Amino acid sequence: MLLEEQRYIHEDLERLEQGIADRMGDEPKQIRDRLNRDHEVSQLLDQIQKQSSILLALYEDKAGARSKEILDISTGDPFREFTNQYNKIKEHHGSYPSEQAENSEQWYKPRKGPDQPYIVESMFSGEEAYGRFFDLHTCHEAYLNLPNAKRLAYLQYLEVFDDFQPGKGGIKRADKLTDDYFRYLGGLASYLESFMRRTRPLENLDKVYEGWDKEFETAWEKDEVPGWQKEASAAKKNATSRNLSTADAVWCEACEKEFKNENVYKGHLNGRKHIKAAEILAKWEETASVGDSHAPVALAHRLRERAVAEREFRVKKLTSAMSTEKDDTRVNVERRQGMTERERAQELENFYNMSNTPQNQAPEEEDDNDDDDKIYNPLKLPLAWDGKPIPFWLYRLHGLGQEFPCEICGNFVYRGRRAFDKHFNETNHITNLKRLGITNTYLFRDITSIAEAMKLWEKIQREEKKHHVDDGSVVQMEDAEGNVMPEKVYLDLQKQGLL
């Protein structure tokens, strides 16, 4: 019966909603449990969409079977259809007498216990730590195999893999049109998309990707994609707006390389590499400005550039959306490089012990384990991500024993020079400076005292007023011909006998 099927789907939708509510009511402490819960909720939401589409098709009743069934029940014998259904059920159970009836109320309820598997166990590698860090070793190897690519270590690659400017970590524009580079970008983009889907199962990522595609289409039509301008003049204009390391630095558009000063730049102009790069640039400019007779060649070249630029744009957007994971990955790799082999083995053992912890363990067992594993930390060392004190040599290496108070931040004490230098660019410090009436905050680096900051700001204000000339306070003079000029200019011309 179609009506019975509709009723059953409505009941199933209510059970699915209750299952989602039961899972969202608990907030797991560990990232593995929280990610596993989100994936379970995502699967239930997919089931709701599937059942809703079936229910919608039944209500639309394009074939008219539902209307016919309602008409038969309302006009005919109401017990006839009931008797037919009863006989079918009786015949089914007569054919399968040992079949067990399932309790549908238990289908979508959260299952607790040590034997329940994790959905996320097979989704992440050990390096990814359940979505906390990137695992870009494969992409790094593919990058090193690219022709004319810089020989970057893995830690350096993590800092610049999303920056495709030649001076940073990318390769030249002419070398980007190779099949190897296109496959490298495809592998990098697909990994980042997969990582984002695995770590954010409850977000509508298809809609986000669609918005990025529209943004790229708009930028490409306006010829505003950085590094992929159509005209050579636009590319040169983009080169002049690059962020160079120093004020005396010079950028060579042909070599796509930064030089320290003008003399070094002029010295490399006679080299074979520059001459060869200049010839390639001239060919590219010729290709970009070909006439209608070579339109198919130019069109094919531009389409290939578009495909590469689109993947670069996607990688930039994905990385900016997961900037926290990128920074955490770089810090984690740097931390692991400073560890001994014994410390790495201990960390790996702790990670596997956490992975083998039963899902949704009872609170009493957790309390017992906490009592048994009390942390011995007499030196009051900072705790690492696993909840244990960091090694003392690492504490000394980063200078965490040094304290740097900042009066502007409410006498907050920063431990270590690195954290102290970093806080000058943070929102809290900049906001406190603006509350004091200071707008040019970049001039107040390494200043932590309110009195010193106000003294420097008053000095800057006085200097600005000294150089500022008020047009209303300048005395205007007029000569015999009616020309109006400042008093100083008038007196100078009078002394020279020109008036």
Automatic annotation (TrEMBL):
Organism encoding this protein: Apiosordaria backusii
Name recorded for this polypeptide: Matrin-type domain-containing protein
Keyword Nucleus: yes
Region (Disordered): 92-112, 346-373
Localisation per UniProt entry: Nucleus
A Pfam family assignment: SF3a60_bindingd
Signal peptide: none
Keywords: Metal-binding, Nucleus, Phosphoprotein, Zinc, Zinc-finger
Compositional bias annotation for Acidic residues: 363-373
Gene Ontology annotations for the cellular component aspect, listed alphabetically: spliceosomal complex
Record GO biological process: mRNA splicing, via spliceosome
Lineage of origin: Eukaryota, Fungi, Dikarya, Ascomycota, Pezizomycotina
GO MF annotation terms: RNA binding; zinc ion binding
InterPro entries named among the record's database cross-references: Matrin/U1-C_Znf_C2H2, RNA_Proc_DNA_Dmg_Regulator, SF3A3_dom, SF3a60/Prp9_C, SF3a60_bindingd, Znf_C2H2_jaz, Znf_C2H2_sf, Znf_C2H2_type
